[in-house]
Specification:
alpha/beta, 765 residues, 22% strand, globular, Alpha-Beta Plaits, Tetracycline Repressor, domain 2, binds fe (iii) ion, 21 helices, binds zinc ion, 30 strands
Length: 765
């Protein structure tokens, strides 16, 4: 025997998402194909392998381990140790080893794979039209897991005993369903049922087909999905959509639409290559794509908007339903306005019976609520606006090791974040922390993540705002003795964008949002910071202006306009502005005047979101809103109607220096907008010029700050940067001035990303 042929032993540890994704059968096949002996097993922290055989076969094995890994596996690290051979005779899959303190990543729920789809549509297959078809490459994961390690008894599938054929698939290492925990078939698995809104079964031979017929007839059907109930109706029927709006008490906030396939998506939207990639990815998010003028989807679905949220079917049930109805369907969270999504059958019947006419339910329990994720593609790269299904609980990888902390987030679109080693476990979208249901959902999900990922936070980070329910949650934890770390809102935004981009050295942080309590007690939101994870220094901001009546004014942007005009331009400016705005009530005007002049209940704000609101209402675009950001969004939409969208004119403004603070003054901006408006410049043109102005401000400020900050790295964060026109113009101007610009990718730029920033800052505190 030559030296090269003597058997060697390699012990391999593979970390990442390697459980519940068909990894062990893959290893088994790889080893047996190369005639290697040994074993593979799941542990609480990795997949462990020992293989024995010729050195070159072992090398080939290690190479292919990464190169040919199953589609859902996400390998973070492979560690190999070489040892003396022990003489294994076979290759086995060994029993899982459980170690209580260790942490193992969990796969998100994944859209139905091609192979399962083929079975679903094959009349000769035993899973023909079976809505719970799944395999190791697709299907539910996170939403059915109660604890780790991921085995069937620890999922909501435990009540379904597998039939002999399913069991045989489950036991066969060469089968696509080997150890697929949710494995099921029509004989042994969960079933769907159609009931009316009092819970009585609708007699029919095929619940899914009948539900489809009802949707076609204009009814509203609540459909139990992966992470909760979705409310569905015919998206091409104005009547159906209007009635859903009325019953859900949501008069104009956009709905998302599910379409049968990519061809259909392209019939309703312009879909770029990147957008197509996202739509068809295993994550399968809602993508905000440019809505075609000739689309048959009713404009009621997303009133006044240029973009439509579209998604493709992501469960077998959706595929069956959509191919039955051949219609785009509105699919929106099963809740009443801002409550969390309903997940259990009886809960859905209780909460949604006033909205849905029928319920397509099933008997597989959902353990975790999980909304659809929302993404957009701008400048060729995708960014998440809402991070949930398909993404969470996969962690945001960090470039550095952190201590275990909990970031509680802020208020709207909230998430939390738990850290461990080099991972930031950012929760799925939880919702607006405005009602007891959402706060309970928040608390339950924190416990779930702590349990699943074996994290015991040593500190808890929270927003400076004392009244946020997330802050109060942190205060409660403090009673248990855990250290509290307050983090300023906009510092958290910057840190979140830094972590999203793997940055570590100080940056110029430009944070534009609606609201965030500043360290001086005022409401910030047009901020220029020099910051890293350790500290933050405010170096510039939009000038302070009064918010009459406080937060309530955000529902009625015209009040903000009146207050701003009064504060900036006095009585004469107010008079001119009023001439442009329709029917402002005199009594209300008098109150606002008093509030501003006497500084009564008028907190000061430097918010850019409010600046957009004020201009939107001044132009008569949107004086009262129905959902957060609406006035600003419709101001952006107006710009797209301009004949010369690319025009580069801007409005005047000035920058005043106050010590090392630079303050942007907008009095000239408002007076010139009024002048343009008086001279009949269309709103669209004014909107374009306004967007140019805000982008110019960013460039100017950054040029002024860069020397002082000793960096040319700029991060853009805050919900205002969901405005694509502003984002594009700003990034363009900054890059032309040789700044290195970083925007959000994996984490929302809105407050859904705050908890990540808090957690990273706290773990360095
Ligand atoms: Zn599959
Ligand atoms: Zn079965
Ligand atoms: Fe914010």
């Amino acid at each position: 025997m030559t030296k090269a042929e003597a058997p060697k032993l390699a012990r391999i540890s593979v970390r990442g998402i390697v459980q519940g994704v068909g990894f062990r059968p893959f290893v088994y096949r790889l080893a047996t194909d190369l005639n290697l002996k040994g074993w593979v097993c799941n542990t609480s922290e990795d997949v462990r392998i020992e293989i024995e055989g010729p050195r070159d076969s072992i090398d080939k094995f290690c190479l292919n381990l990464k190169a040919q890994a199953p589609p859902l596996a996400h390998i973070e690290e492979i560690a190999v140790t070489h040892l003396p051979a022990v003489g294994y005779r076979d290759f086995d899959i060994r029993r899982s080893l459980v170690d209580k303190g260790k942490c193992q990543l969990i796969s998100p729920d994944i859209a139905t794979c091609r192979t399962c789809l083929d079975e679903l549509s094959d009349p000769n297959d035993r899973r023909y039209r079976y809505p719970f078809t799944n395999c190791t490459n697709c299907g539910p994961r996170f939403t059915i897991i109660e604890d780790m390690p991921y085995d069937r008894p620890k999922t909501t599938m435990r009540s379904f005993a597998m039939c002999p054929r399913c069991q045989a698939e489950y036991d066969n290492p060469l089968d696509r369903r080997f150890h697929a925990q949710p494995n099921a078939c029509p004989i042994c698995g969960p079933r769907v049922e159609l009931v009316d809104n009092r819970g009585y079964a609708v007699s029919c031979s095929d619940a899914m087909y009948t539900a489809g017929q009802m949707l076609k007839a204009g009814e509203i059907v609540a459909i139990k999905g992966l992470g909760g109930f979705l409310l569905a109706c015919d998206a091409t029927s104005e009547l159906a959509v209007k009635s859903l709006r009325h019953r859900k008490r949501r008069s104009s906030k956009p709905f998302a639409v599910m379409v049968e396939n990519m061809e259909e998506a392209k019939r309703h939207c312009y879909i770029s290559m990147e957008e197509e990639g996202l739509l068809t990815s295993p994550q399968s998010p809602i993508v905000l794509a440019r809505w075609r003028q000739d689309s048959t989807v009713s404009r009621e679905v997303a009133p006044n908007l240029r973009y439509l949220g579209v998604m493709l079917p992501y469960t077998p049930l959706h595929h069956i339903l959509l191919s039955d109805v051949h219609l785009p369907l509105v699919m929106t969270s099963g809740n009443l306005s801002e409550e969390p999504i309903a997940k259990d059958n009886d809960e859905a019947l209780r909460r949604l019976s006033g909205i849905a006419d029928y319920f397509l339910i099933h008997n597989r329990d959902i353990y975790s609520r999980y909304d659809d994720s929302v993404a957009m593609v701008e400048r060729g790269s995708s960014q998440l606006i809402r991070r949930a299904r398909g993404y969470a609980p996969y962690p945001i990888p960090l470039k550095f090791k952190v201590r275990p902390v909990l970031g509680c987030g802020a208020h709207l679109k909230n998430t939390f974040c738990l850290t461990r080693d080099k991972h930031a476990f950012l929760s799925q979208h939880i919702g607006d922390m405005e009602n007891i249901e959402t706060v309970e959902h928040f608390a339950d999900t924190v416990s779930l993540y702590e349990r699943l990922f074996r994290i015991k936070p040593v500190a808890v980070a929270h927003d400076l705002h004392p009244d946020y329910l997330a802050t109060r949650y942190a205060m409660e934890m403090n009673k248990g003795g855990i250290e509290l770390i307050p983090v300023q809102h906009h510092h958290a935004h910057v840190a979140s964008c830094m972590a999203d981009n793997g940055l570590q050295s100080p940056v110029i942080g430009v944070v534009f949002d609606g609201t965030g309590l500043g360290s001086d007690g005022h409401i910030w939101g047009g901020e220029f910071l020099v910051a890293d994870y350790h500290s933050s220094r405010r170096v510039g901001h939009l000038e302070y202006l009064p918010l009459p009546g406080g937060d309530a004014a955000t529902r009625k942007p015209y009040r903000i306009t009146l207050a701003y005009l009064l504060a900036l331009l006095g009585e004469e400016g107010l008079r001119q502005g009023l001439a442009l705005m329709k029917d402002v009530d005199n009594a209300e005007l008098a109150i606002i005047q008093r509030q501003v002049e006497k500084r009564l209940n008028s907190p000061l704000t430097s918010s850019i979101g409010r600046l957009f609101d004020a201009v939107s209402a001044l132009l008569g675009i949107r004086g009262e809103i129905d959902y957060e950001g609406q006035a600003a969004i419709e101001l952006e939409m107006a710009a797209y109607k301009a004949p010369h969208e690319g025009e580069e004119d801007s409005y005047p403004y000035s920058v005043a220096e106050d010590g090392d603070l630079r303050i942007i003054k907008v009095c000239d901006l408002f007076s010139t907008v009024i002048k343009d408006s008086q001279q009949g410049v269309p709103r669209s043109g004014i909107s374009v010029k306004f967007h140019n102005t805000v982008a110019q401000m960013v460039k100017h400020m950054c040029l002024s700050i860069t020397g002082d900050a000793a960096t040319n790295k700029v991060v853009l964060s805050g919900g205002v940067f969901q405005n694509r026109l502003l984002l594009n113009k700003t990034v363009g101007l900054l890059e032309r001035s040789n700044f290195e610009v970083y925007t959000h990718k994996q984490v929302p730029c809105n407050d859904g990303g705050i908890s990540l920033g808090q957690a990273v800052i706290a773990s360095f505190a």
